[in-house]
Amino acid sequence: MNKTFLFDALREATDEEMKRDKSVFVLGEDVGHYGGSYKVTKDLHIKYGDLRVLDTPIAENSFLGMAIGASITGLRPIVEGMNMSFLLLAFNQISNNAGMLRYTSGGNFTIPLVIRGPGGVGKQLGAEHSQRLEAYFQAIPGLKIVACSTPYNAKGLLKSAIRDNNPVIFFEHVLLYNLQDSIPSEEYFIPLDQAEVVREGKDVTIVTYSRMRHHVMQAVDALLEDKYNPEVIDLISLKPIDIETIVSSLKKTHKLIIVEECMKTGGIAAEIIAQVNDEYFDLLDSPIIRLSSQDIPTPYNGSLEKATVIQPQQIVEAVKNILS
User: Fold this and answer.
1) Backbone angles phi, psi at 206, to 5 degrees
2) How far apart are CA 210 and CA 119, in angstroms?
3) Is 129 noted as a catalytic residue in this protein?
4) Active site residue 60
5) Which of 12, 17, 29, 60 is catalytic?
6) Are 168 and 205 within one domain?
7) Where is the Transketolase-like pyrimidine-binding domain (predicted)?
8) What is the rounded CA–CA span in Å between residue 232 and residue 216?
9) Which of 158, 179, 196, 229 has the smallest C-beta neighbourhood within 10 Å, fewest atoms?
10) How large is the average pLDDT for residues 3-22?
């Protein structure tokens, strides 16, 4: 086991897959000589050359379209969005091309494409750099969506995503790149469609993902002191949602809290609530609690920004309320 930063875990996964398969290449803004805005591709251009670690112009719709065309011809592109917010400029390519071409071609084309990069609410990045695009992409047929939360799952998920024959949106949180943890030295993979039971418990099920996993675990530390015993699930897969793991937990706890950094309206929590209410309503002993970000553009002001995002104390209070 080696102590590794999350950005280095992503770099290791990319390096290993590029070494293994010459059809894998990286493209995006400043991914080559600069090494990526968060150094996920640092020095890879030295090892693999400028055509496999390709610096693009500032033109998201163009290089996303190019990547989709490359995937149709048999290559396996990894597109880095310098900030995932910028990929809204390529929404047409992602939805009408990446998501649909396998279907509209009658299965003649596969789209082995990974679109990855930093997103989420950072520290005073302003509204346009603080987007959570999972709500935007959730409704697009044909996509897989994952969100890494630790160095361990970041590496295993990215290797699986690169080998998958479908377009995968791979969310990294801008504030987690310097998270450090032990990861195995031997090769490993993590499924793209399975949630992780982070902590087993019996009082209440808390479902979360990405950076909020760490806010939840801070809250759990406080709750354990007061003899509460929550179960914590990291979704990891945002599309498809691993509803079976959530339901298995609800059969024990019968209470559900969902914690997300996504906006409340049309967010990931909204989809989970709909699925649980449609098929598993009888498992619930109380209404589902949804802890989501405020439905406003993220303020630049640090105090206001913090107030828009769920904090550990709010999670503690929600658990105490649902169990009272």
Assistant:
1) -110, 120
2) 10
3) yes
4) yes
5) 60
6) no
7) 4-179
8) 8
9) 229
10) 97
Which of these is catalytic: 29, 80, 129, 215?
A: 129
What is the edge-to-edge ordering of all strands in the sheet holding 168-173? 53-55, 24-28, 76-80, 114-119, 168-173, 144-147, 237-239
Q: Which CATH number does the domain housing residue 318 bear?
A: 3.40.50.920
Q: Give me the CATH number covering residue 158.
A: 3.40.50.970
pLDDT at 99 over 90: yes
Q: What share of the chain is helix, strand, coil (3-state, %, to 5)?
A: 40, 20, 40
Domain identity same for 152 and 277: no
Give the whole-number percent of the chain exceeding pLDDT 90: 98
What pLDDT is recorded for position 1? 79
Q: Are 87 and 65 in contact (CB under 8 A)?
A: no
pLDDT in tens, 204-214: 999 999 999 99
Of the pLDDT bands very low, low, confident and very high (cuts 50, 70, 90), residue 2 is confident
Structure tokens at 24: 């894998």
Decide if 190 is inside a domain: no
In a domain, 68, yes or no: yes
The reply to whether 189 falls in a domain is no
The answer to whether residues 67 and 203 belong to one domain is: no
Q: What are the pLDDT digits (tens) for 17-57? A: 999 999 999 999 999 999 999 999 999 999 999 999 999 99
Instruction: Give the N- to C-terminal CA distance of the chain in Å, as an integer.
Output: 42
